[in-house]
Amino acid sequence: MTPDRFAANLDAIQRRTDELTSAAGARSDDDLALPSALEGWSRLTILCHLRYGATMTARMTRATVNRQPTAFYPEGRELQRPQTLRPAPGESARQVIASLAEQSGQLAYVWAGIWEDEWDRPVLDGNDGVRLPRMALTIGDLALLRFTEVEVHGTDLGIGLCDWSTEFVEVTLPRRVAWLGRRTAPHLSAAVDLPMTWLLASTDGPSYSVRIGQEGETTTEIAPFAATAQHRIEGSSRELLATILGRRAARDRDADDAAISSFRQTFPGP
């Protein structure tokens, strides 16, 4: 069943989910209708999004175990996504929270039945029946994405949840670095001079070199803290992850503004 390398993450996902639904359940409907820290989204919007994410991650996991094509938005993102960000007709905020808890429990149940050799099974794209473009995700990656959703959106809610956990940052930062330019192509203007390099210099963990070569290929590797690059972004591991995920870091560094801007234009957050 669940191997040791995922067990701690799954426990952390469940703890964060329980914390999130408990805190949201203590708020009034009017309070949940207020804007969140995520621009353009209310707190209830986030809860609806998390509810849908739990449902679809469970379905995608089951499909992948059975080697069937699957997709997060089977009907297409532009058509389906707006519906997933709001309650069903006549559904109250209380019902959304209860449904989120129920769907999260179903997801945990599905994950509990995953065998060790299934976590690395690639997800097949339901749009055309082939592996996802550029870089195939695995069932383990689906769990990592869910970890990101509950940690980051839990903070986005602005209802008093603690900041991102240490285990989340430690497991997510290296994987997100590895995904740069691979899951989606980097955004490069026709006038850009290649190669381009960035150093993600961590003050409390491994630092990473990110390079886009002459042919537009992206490579990443662990690098010394004092390594040189065209652009240097220095901060804690949490702050570097926030940069990758398109969130503001807890500590601003004016000297990094140009480097962060260049990085985010090239590798837009999720």
> Which residues form runs of ≥5 with pLDDT under 50?
128-133
Order of strands, widest sheet: 3-2-1-4
Give me the secondary-structure category.
alpha+beta
Residues in helices, as a percent range: 40-55%
Mean pLDDT level: 91
Q: How many alpha or pi helices?
A: 9
Share in β-strands = 5-15%
Radius of gyration: 19 Å
Q: Largest sheet at a glance? A: 4 strands, mixed
Elements, N to C (H/E): HHHHHHHEEEEHH
Shape: globular
Terminal CA distance reads 30 Å
Number of DSSP-assigned strands: 4
Structure description:
- By secondary structure, this protein is α+β, with helices and mostly antiparallel strands.
- It is 47% helix and 9% strand.
- The protein has helices spanning 4-25, 29-32, 43-65, 77-84, 93-112, 139-156, 166-179, 237-244, 257-266, and strands spanning 196-202, 207-212, 218-223, 231-235.
- A 4-stranded mixed beta sheet has the order 3-2-1-4.
- Helix 1 (4-25) runs parallel beside helix 6 and helix 7 (166-179) crosses helix 8.
- The longest helix has 23 residues, at 43-65.
- Residues 128-133 have low confidence and may be disordered.
